[in-house]
Design goal:
about 375 residues; Rossmann fold; 3 domains; five-stranded parallel sheet; 14 helices; globular
Amino acid sequence: MSSETGTASVRILYIDDDPDRSAALFRQHFSRIEVLNTNDSDFLQKLENEATRADIIVTDYDLKDTLRSAGAALYPRDGQALNEVIDSMMRRLTRKAVFTIYSAQLSRIPGLEKLDGVPHLQARKLGVVLVGTKHRPEEFMRRLAVVADGLKQVKGWVPNRGTTLRELFVPALRIPDDAAWREDAIIEVERFRPPVQEMEEREDKAAFLSWLALEIFPYPTFLIGLEHVALALRVDPDWLDKAISKRGDEILRELEGVRYKGILADLEGPRWWRVGLNQELWKATRQRPWDRETLGGIVKTWFGEDVRLIEQPDPVLLYDEFGRTTKDVADVSETVRFMPSGWPAPAPWPSARIDEIKNDDVWRQLVVPEDERRLA
């Protein structure tokens, strides 16, 4: 296979029972956009013509039963069901689109009531790559544009004898060619099981984007977020977050060489290569990254004397029951690990305070078996 980046344009289909409020905004951001109104009498005919040509489907969730007039007893009652109908149409053509949900009522969708603020879990529940709220339209347009740009890159991946998928996704992730940790990073990527079969069998280029957006970015995988960078540096995560807000990304210039700059890099927030960060700390501390005094000295050189260091001798980040980091830190002796739904198996299990998890009958059932005895 080979990659023909920049040559494939992305076609977006927006479906809503009242699209006029958002259609203008979509057209401001995207040049190839078709808008369908589920109230139109010829909606089904238009859908059949447009859906199978689209690369990205944006569907409102609450269609207000506007498709009941189709006459079928099992008509799609919401945007999730309509997406599944469109996917079945594409399946006959061995194609796969990127499906999204754009709704004013995300938190009221059955099953999503407790997942407000956890967009990757909302997306998983709805079987889509991306969710967005109409209350923050510009944020959704920004993220959709990032996905469209990513899809534009992977659409150009075409069969070519002698080229492997590994040779495609490694350049897409932009692992630095001259990095001493490059091969270790590639091995880590492969541990997290890129969707090779899906991409081969159904030309499902969207699977690669879904894998990154829903299984890689939200968790401590081969890429890590700011909280885990802070933990590695033994810097209070909240202090580092506020320091960046005040002083900008320049504060992390020493780690620019290990910052993730590949496909979808701007989707959620900055990420860093885990093995690259470890390598940088290994060099900066002269092979003593575990030495608190040595590491503390390096960190003060980078961030200033006012940096707030983590005091716990063996710190871990704390998570809630859904696997969201709280940015709080505790010593490992005060915590147990647990297995939240959707957490990728190769990633280290998240931790929560013993006193908090032991008093929650549901949460405590998720505790890693090896840690259960500590709840007694």
